[in-house]
Amino acid sequence: MVALVLGAIVIVGLVAAAASVAAGLTSRQTPTAASGAPHFVDGSGSAGVGQVYEGEWSYVGGGVAVFDCDDDARSDLYIAGGSNPATLVHNASPRGGAIRFEAVHDPATDMSDVNGAYPLDIDADGIVDLAVLRFGENVLLRGLGDCRFERANETFGFDGGHAWTTAFSATWEGSAQLPTLAFGNYTSMDTNGDWDGTCTDDVLVRPAPSGRRYVPPTPLEPSWCTLSMLFSDWARSGRRDLRVSNDHHYYSDTSDGAEQLWRIDDGQPPLQYTAADGWQLLRIWGMGIASQDLTGDGLPEVFLTSQADNKLQTLEDGPARPTYRDIAIERGATAHRPFIGDTSLNSTAWHAQFDDANNDTFMDLFIAKGNVGVMPDFASRDPSNLLLGQSDGTFKEGAQDAGLIDFAQGRGGAAVDLNLDGLLDIVKVNRGVPVSIWRNVGAGTAAKAGPIGNWLAVKIGQPGPNGDGIGAWVSARVGDRIVEREVVVGGGHAGGQLGPIHFGLGSADRVDVRIQWPDGEVGPWQTVDANQFVTIERGAAGPRPWTLPSS
C-alpha cells in the first residue's frame, strides 16, 4: 500500500512539474558541475566562545544546539560542558563579518552534567525551547524570549529520569498538542559509578491524549547503549519512524544487540522492525545519524558514523520494506581513516551533517572526528571531514583545501550560517579544549569574503501545535535538479538545529520552492529570488523575505 501511495505521489509530482515548466516557472539551467572547496578561516580564538566539554565520563556527548533565542535572525548556541556548566552564547556577528559571540549566563541554562541539547518549540508559543540531555535528570527548558529560559519539567509533567542520556529526537503524532519525545540512553552505572554490564532502556515520552502534559515514559525494550536517534519518514509514507544507532562496544555478538528501527504509529505501542519486515542485522559503533536524499528518488539515504566502519545506506527495494544496502565505498564516503595525520590508523567519527558548503546544489557531508580518549588502535591526529558532493553522486575530500584542519577530539558540531552571508560556517565541540569555529569566506579571504555560489535559506511555519513544520519536506528546483530536505529534530551527535533550511543554487538567480507539509498536503511551486532568507507560511500568498539586522 505504501508503494502504491508513493507511486501516486511521484506521478502527481511529475504532472505538476510538467505543468510548472509549461507555465514558465523553471527558467534556470540544470547544474552539471560541482564546485571546489570553499575557504574557511579559523575564528576560534576571536569568536568569544571558550566553552570546554570535559569530565571523567565525557568521552561521548558534547553536543551543541543551534537556534535563534532572541528573534534577531542570527543563530545562537547552547553548548554542552560535561562536568563544566553548559553555556548559552548569543550571536553578535555583523552581517558578512567576523564571527563573534557573547555569553549569556543564567542559573536555568548554566547546568552541569550536560551531554547535549536539541531545540524545538514544545508549547507552540513561537519561542524556542530546549531538551537538555544530562548525566542525571534530563530537563526541558521553556523559552521565555530574549534568550531567557525556565525549567519546565513540572509544567509539562515530564519525568526526566536519572540516566546517562546521549541521544534525542522529536516528532508530532496526529493532532497532539505536544511533541512525542524520544530519549536515547547509554550504559547503566552501579553505585560506584562503574558500568554494570547493561544498557539503560531508551524511552518514548508521549503527551496525554487530552491536555498539555506528558504521561510516564514508555521503555523501548530492548535498548543497546544508544548514541543517536532520528524520527524520519524513511518511506515517504507519512509515518515517521525512529531510527536508533547503538554502540557495539557495550553489547556482544552473541546478544541481540544491533542498529534499530522502531515503527511509530500514532497512539500505538512502538514496534521494533525485524528480519521478517526486511530489517537487516547491522552492528557498528554507532555514534551519529545524518539523513538526506542523495539519489533523487525522494527517499532519504542514511549516513551512520562509527569507529572506522561508517555506513552510507540506501533502500535496496524502494519504500515497501526497510531493507538497506551500504553504498559508502562506491560513493567515496567511507571516511574510515584520516586523510592527514595518523593515516595508518582508523578514524573515530561522531557528528555528521549533510548540507551544501560550497553552494553548488550538490549535497556535502561534514563529519566531526576525534579519538574517544587515548585508544591506541585509533588515530589521535584525526581531522574532521568535509566530503564535497560531486555531479556523479560521489564524494571527494575537501577539508584540507578548505582549511578545516585541527586535531582536537571533536564530538558534536554544526554547519550553519552564523553571519547571515549565505555561506555555511562550522562549529565543532571538542573534548578537553575549547570549541572550534570556522568562518566560511567562500572564494575570498578573512579580509573580504567572496561569493562561491548563489543560495536561499527557507524557514517554514504553519498554524497549530507543530508551528515549525517538523516532518515537512522542503524542495528546491533549479532546472531539472530537485533537492529535497526533511525538517527534523534529532540525529547528529548530542545536538541539532532549528532554523532556516539552506539551499545552494550554483549560478541560478532564482529557484522554485515547494513544501510538503507534515500531514502530506503539498503546496504549489513558488519562484523565489536567490541570495535571501525567506519564510514560507502555510496558506500564505507567497514567501516573506526576512528583515535582517543592518550590521
Describe the structure.
It is a single chain. The chain is mostly beta strands and 551 residues long. The strands form nine sheets. Strands 6, 7, 8, 9, 10, 11, 14, 15 and 34 form a nine-stranded antiparallel β-sheet that branches. A four-stranded antiparallel β-sheet has the order 1-30-29-28, with no helix packed on it. It has a four-stranded antiparallel β-sheet with strand order 2-3-4-5, with no helix packed on it. A hairpin with an 8-residue loop joins strand 28 (410-416) and strand 29 (425-430). The N and C termini lie far apart (53 Å). Mean pLDDT is 94; it is low at 1-27.
Structural class assignment:
mainly beta
Cα separation of the termini: 53 Å
- Number of separate helices: 4
Are there runs of 5+ residues with pLDDT below 50, and where?
A: 1-27
Count every beta strand, where a strand is a DSSP E run of 2 or more residues.
Answer: 39
Silhouette: globular
Question: Helical percent range?
Answer: under 10%
Please state roughly what percent of the residues sit in beta strands, choosing from under 5%, 5-15%, 15-25%, 25-35%, 35-45% or over 45%: 35-45%
Radius of gyration based on Cα positions: 22 Å
Mean pLDDT, as a whole number?
A: 94
Largest sheet: 9 strands, antiparallel
